[in-house]
Design goal:
Elements lengths: L24 H12 L14 H10 L8 H22 L5 H4 L4 H7 L8 H27 L4 H21 L4 E8 L2 H10 L12 E7 L5 H11 L12 E2 L4 H4 L6 H12 L14 E10 L18 E12 H7 L6 H15 L6 H6 L10
Parallel strand pairs: 2-5
Antiparallel strand pairs: 1-2, 3-4, 4-5
Helix pairs in contact: 1-9, 1-11, 3-6, 8-13
């Protein structure tokens, strides 16, 4: 599937000098997670190197310890909830320094220890997994408590992503295009009819963005930039990633530990699963629950005590990433957008027990046999 440009496309600017920053272990883990569509709940180790990396990660979740007085209290509150659940409901026991670290950010660093086996690292990881789950639940709770339209939240998310696109260009990342659009109501209905699932919750691309890199080797650095500056990597929705572009050889799994090999295996299995796409269509596609400040939406009143539920909610957004050469190939032959829409329409007519009118084929420039006219 392709994403068509529309009025929310980022402005074209004069190209700046290209920058390709070195990747950290945390960058690599984030990119693998996005490509594989895995879950951080399965991880047994993190890769944070210092407190600055942890603080930057927390800011992506709307928890800015340097500027928001309530943020430190919020972080401690969620951490304590996680410990309480594990002790009271699962009967786990933790060392005192694990139960109540001096600074909760230290837990992220302890969970990143590289020892082959570390009991404390395993304990910290267990707690942080619960922190992730509780944070997710409380974002949903906040969303249910604040009276705000979905359209307004989509506007907030769109502005956030396009601001990131501007920054990405300013920093010289090798991006040729970064644009997005929203799925119209008729498009949502068509997709629901074409999918086996038939609830709106299964339509992840109501808000979608497309990034075209200059070269194939630029894809991973650009993905890493997104997870450093826009998307916290645990926000990736498990099971919704497509990787029909990067090959196993490009994944470089030799010499990696067992966890990284497991992720690489998932990567190789995350292939194109959209039946309407052409056989030669190649893309990297993943879905995230993008954290946005709900109180940036019109009419949303901030609470007195933000430490309990925070101030961010999750907005589903789809990201497609492809290099320039592959994008050109994707717009030709059986892969072109008109044929994608035609195959999708055929599925809709089949499910409704009808034959597709010849006029639909004609609009795609085909005869009724599906061949070029």
């Amino acid at each position: 599937m392709t994403v068509r440009r529309d009025p929310i496309e980022a402005d074209e600017e004069v190209p700046l000098p290209i920058v390709r920053p070195a990747l950290t272990a945390l960058d690599e883990d984030a990119v693998r997670l996005a490509l594989a569509g895995g879950s951080v709940v399965e991880w047994s180790r993190l890769s944070f190197r210092n407190v600055e990396e942890v603080s930057r990660f927390l800011r992506l979740w709307g928890c800015d310890l340097a500027h928001d007085a309530w943020a430190r209290e919020r972080l401690r509150y969620v951490y304590n909830q996680a410990v309480e659940y594990l002790e009271e409901h699962l009967g786990l026991h933790f060392a005192t320094e694990v139960r109540r670290p001096r600074d909760v950010r230290d837990a992220f660093l302890r969970a990143s220890m590289r020892d082959r086996f570390s009991r404390h690292r395993i304990q910290y990881c267990a707690i942080l997994k619960l922190v992730h789950v509780i944070n997710h639940l409380e974002m949903q709770e906040l969303r249910s408590q604040v009276a705000v339209r979905e359209l307004d939240l989509l506007d907030v998310a769109t502005n956030k992503v396009l601001e990131a696109a501007r920054l990405m260009r300013e920093e010289g990342m090798p991006v040729e295009a970064f644009y997005g659009n929203r799925k119209t109501r008729p498009s949502v209905i068509t997709k629901l009819l074409a999918k086996r699932e038939s609830t709106a919750a299964t339509v992840f691309d109501k808000l979608r963005f497309r990034i075209i890199t200059a070269q194939r080797e630029d894809i991973v650095p650009c993905l890493a930039w997104l997870f450093r500056n826009l998307i916290p990597f645990p926000a990736v929705i498990p099971g919704e990633s497509v990787n029909s572009l990067l090959t196993e050889a490009e994944l470089e799994v030799d010499g990696k530990d067992d966890v990284e090999r497991d992720v690489a295996r998932l990567l190789s299995e995350a292939t194109n699963r959209n039946p309407a796409s052409g056989g030669g269509y190649r893309v990297i596609n993943f879905v995230v629950g993008l954290p946005v400040r709900v109180f940036d939406a019109p009419g949303a009143e901030p609470p007195r005590h933000r430490a309990f539920l925070g101030e961010v909610v999750s907005v589903l957004a789809e990201f497609q990433v492809v290099d320039h050469a592959t994008d050109q190939t994707n717009e030709s032959g059986e892969n072109r957008h008109e044929l994608y829409k035609l195959r999708q329409s055929q599925k809709v007519y089949e499910r409704l027990g009808r034959s597709m009118p010849g006029a639909v084929f004609a609009r795609a420039g085909l005869d009724e046999g599906g061949d070029d006219g």
